[in-house]
Specification:
Elements: H1 2-19, E1 32-37, E2 54-59, H2 63-71, E3 79-83, H3 85-91, H4 94-111, E4 117-120, H5 129-146, E5 152-155, E6 161-162, E7 165-166, H6 181-198
Parallel strand pairs: 1-2, 1-3, 3-4, 4-5
Antiparallel strand pairs: 6-7
Helix pairs in contact: 2-4, 3-5, 4-5
């Protein structure tokens, strides 16, 4: 009986000691990305953007709404994406839009100094040659204005155009500036590329297209942007 008792006691001690050993190979918490933008981000399926980070999106139609949403974030995101210039250029001069964006970036950095910011540049449009050119000018001006800010990067959406003109398959014919499903897929992929770069994730190469389906357009990516089903990049 004494020997049996000792064995039971030793077993309990071993089990107790084992239970106190910290669990290894715990999953690290994934980075979290917040996208705030105009109605053109509505079709982006945040949950499908990547398996390497979590994503939520917030619709804000103006700079004022965007600033309010930034103030109300529950926590500092790992990356903040701002797609806010599309509506702005319709009602304001280019230099005013650039100044407003610069002010919003400064405000965001005061609120979340450690959060990298991605500015998603205006998507091409075909409703107005003037607005299309204005969008291109704003892209150049905002890059120049913030080029020395190491915490800001840019998401270039010019691959939805060719020689400065919007490609019809990416832009809705009804109004000339909202995105088609294909356009949304390309926007999502462009944003994903920018986030991947910030988080130092491996770059992904789009699948090669067969034949001359792009009709001479080097940015043509095939159905859904040529990046997997629905245009999203494959992990």
């Amino acid at each position: 009986m004494e020997i049996l008792s000792l064995k039971i006691h030793d077993s309990r001690d071993d089990r107790s000691e084992f239970q106190q050993v910290p669990t290894r190979n715990l999953r690290q918490r994934k980075p979290h990305v917040t996208i705030i933008g105009t109605s053109n981000i509505k079709g982006i399926q945040a949950e499908k953007l990547s398996n390497h980070f979590t994503t939520d999106k917030i619709t804000a139609l103006t700079f004022e709404e965007t600033t309010t949403e930034i103030k109300q974030l529950a926590q500092a995101p790992s990356v903040l994406v701002l797609h806010s210039l599309t509506n702005e250029l319709r009602t304001k001069e280019a230099k005013v839009s650039v100044e407003n964006m610069s002010t919003m970036v400064n405000f965001t950095q005061d609120e979340y100094p450690d959060t990298p910011i991605v500015i998603s540049l205006p998507t091409p449009r075909k409703d107005s040659d003037e607005l299309s050119f204005k969008g291109q000018m704003i892209s150049l001006m905002i890059k120049e204005r913030l080029r020395t800010n190491k915490n800001v990067s840019f998401c270039d959406n010019s691959n939805m155009s060719y020689k400065g003109e919007a490609l019809p398959r990416f832009i809705d014919d009804k109004d000339g500036f909202h995105l088609t499903p294909n356009g949304t897929a390309v926007l999502a992929s462009n944003i994903r590329d920018s986030i991947d770069n910030i988080l130092d994730l491996p770059k992904r190469v789009p699948r090669k297209q067969n034949g001359n389906r792009g009709r001479g357009n080097p940015y043509y990516r095939g159905r859904g942007g040529g990046r997997g089903r629905g245009g999203y990049r494959r992990d």
